[in-house]
Records
---
Amino acid sequence: MTPTLVDPFQRAIRYLRVSVTDRCDFRCVYCMSENMTFLPKKDLLTLEELDRLCSAFVNLGVEKLRITGGEPLVRRDIMTFFRSMSRHLESGALKELTVTTNGSQLAKYAQDLASAGVRRINVSLDTLDEQKFADITRWGRLPQVLKGIDAAQEAGLRVKINTVALKGFNEDELFSLTEWCASRDLDLTFIEVMPMGDIGNEDRLGQYWALSDLRARLAERYTVRDTDERSGGPARYVRLEETGQKIGFITPLTHNFCESCNRVRITCTGEIYTCLGQEGHSDLRAPLRASEDPAHIEDAIRRAIALKPKGHDFDYSRQDVQGKMSRHMSHTGG
Ligand code: SAM
Ligand code: SF4
C-alpha cells in the first residue's frame, strides 16, 4: 500500500504544486513589479532534482501534481520533465499531472503536454480586450494566448480559465468573459486578488473585488446554483442554470478553506511551503543535494509536513492589509 503523508491536523497530503521557475515572459501588475530581479540559475532546482523531489512525493502518496511558476513553459527543456513525470501516470501512482500557465507558449507545447499525459490545464486570462490585456500583463499579447488556448483544445486538453477579479479593471467583462467561456466550452474560475509580494506602486486594496459581489452580479443575469463539488482546495463551484456552465470561486480572503487543505507547495529553489498564507517553510534543496538516496529526501519531506500549520491569516477586514506576505506569487507558485 502507498504510504500517506499526514499532517498534525490529520489532513492527508495528496496534492503538490511545484514552481519550476520564478521567471516569466509577462509582468502582470498584481504579480510582479516591472523590474524583477530573478534568482541566479544555480539556486534553482535542476530538472533532475525536480524529478527526484516530485517522485519522492509521489512515492509518499501524492496523487496530483501541478506545475507552475513563474511561467512554467518558459523553463528550458521543461518538456523533458513532463515526459519524465508521465511514468508515474503510467504506473497509476499519479492520478493527474497538470499545469498552470499564462498560455503564451501553448501553441508550441500543447501537443507535447497532451502526449505526456496531461489532460487538463489552467490558463490565466483576465480580459478579452487586447489593450487591457497588454496593460495588465505589461508584456503580454492577447492573440498569442488565444492561439495557445486554441492549440490546447485541438490537442484535446480540457482548459480552465483562471481570472483574477480586479475592481475597475474587469468588472465590466463579467458577462462577456462568462459567455465567451460558455461558447468555447471552457471552465471558468474567478480568483480574489491576494496580498503577495512587493509589486511596486499598484494599490492592492484598490484592486480588491470581493467575489461575493461578483457572484451577486452573476445572479442578476443567471440562475446561480451552489454545488457541493470540492477539489480539496480553496475553490467552490456554482452552476449557471441557463448555460450549464460550472464557475469556480477562489476566495482565500473571505472564506476559510484551510480545514480541508490537502496541498503543499514547492518553490523553484526547493523550499516547501506547507501553507500559502504563512511564511513558515523548510528547505528541501539541501537534503536533495546531500544525497541521491530517496530515503533521505523522503525523511526531509516528512519532517516538513509535520510543521504544516493549521491555517492562514489573510484579512482585509481592517483597513490595512493584514497577514500580507512578502514573497511573490511567482516564487511560491500560484
Ligand atoms: N504564469 C502562470 C500563470 O499566470 O498562470 C503560472 C503562475 S501564476 C503566479 C498563477 C496564478 O496566480 C495566475 O492565475 C495568476 O493570475 C495568479 N496570481 C498571481 N498573483 C496573484 C495575486 N496577487 N492574487 C491572486 N492571484 C494571483
Ligand atoms: Fe507571469 Fe503568471 Fe505572474 Fe502573470 S501571473 S506575471 S503570467 S507568473
Note: The pocket of iron/sulfur cluster (ligand 2) is lined by residues 24, 26-28, 31-32, 69-71, 102, 124, 330 (CB under 6 Å).
---
Amino acid sequence: MSLQIVRTVADLRAQVAAWKAAGERVGFVPTMGALHEGHLSLVRLARTRAQRVVASVFVNPTQFGPNEDFDAYPRDEARDAELLAGAGCDLLFAPTVAEMYPDGFATTVTVTGVSEPLDGQARPGHFAGVATVVSKLLNQSQAHVAVFGEKDYQQLQVIRRVVRDLDLPVEIVGGPTARAEDGLALSSRNAYLTDAERPIAGQLNQVMRHAIAELNAGARVDAVEAKAVAALEGAGFARIDYVEVRDAGDLSRLGPGPVDRPARILAAAVLGKTRLIDNMAV
Ligand code: AMP
C-alpha cells in the first residue's frame, strides 16, 4: 500500500480530479495528526464509502485560543504517514500554514446556534476556526464523502450545519468514538496525561455512563448533571467546564426534568494540563 503525500491545494485537486475522471468515489478524513486508532477507524469507515481515501494532517492555528496548546500539540508526520498507509489511505494532504492562510486571508465562517453553548463558551473563537478550516478543506478536496468522529460531537453538528447552510456538495458521515478499555476516549491530547492522571481520566467516561443509567431510569436532568459534576470533582479533576444533557440534534438545553427526546450527554473537564472531552447518546 503506497501513500502519496501532497502539500498544495493544486496537487490535491489534480489527484482527486484524476480519480473522479476514472469514475472513483473519493472519501476524506480531516485530522490534526498525532494519529491514533480513532482516526484510523475513520479512514477505514471512509474506505467502505469510497474507492479512494484522502486524509489531511493540519494543526489549524485558528482553532486554538491564545492560552491553548498550539505549540505543544504533538506532531510526527512520518509516523502519521505510516499509520495512514496501513489503514488503506491513498493520499495525505499536509499543507503548510501559508498554503492554508495566504497573505491577506480575511474570511471567517461563523455558525450561530449549535456552536454557541458548551465548547463554544469554554473556547471562544474555536468553532469559527473549525468551521473556516473545514469549509476550506472540503472545498479543496472536492471529496464525495467526509468522515468526522462523534468524539467531537458538537464539532460534527457544527460541520453538518455549515454543509447544509453553504450547500457544500459533500456527504457528512459520523464515526463512533474509539475508546481505551476503561472507556477513556482516544485523543491525541491523552499523550499529555501523567501516569498518575491516566486512571483518573477514565473516570470521565465512567461518570457519564452512570449518569446515562440514571437518566434512563427517569432521573431529572438537573439532578444528574449536578451529581456528575460533583463526582468528577471528587475524582480529582481540576476544573469541570460542563457536564450537560442536551438535544441530540441542535444541542439545545434539555430538562430540568427527565429526558423527553433524543439526547446526548456532553462533558469537558481539565486534569492537570490536559483538557478532556467526551459525549455519549442517552
Ligand atoms: P483531531 O485530529 O483530534 O482534530 O480529530 C480528527 C478527526 O478524528 C475528528 O473528526 C475527530 O472527531 C476524530 N476523532 C478524534 N478522536 C477520535 C476517537 N477517539 N474516535 C473516533 N474519532 C475520533
Note: The first strand starts at residue 4 and ends at 6.
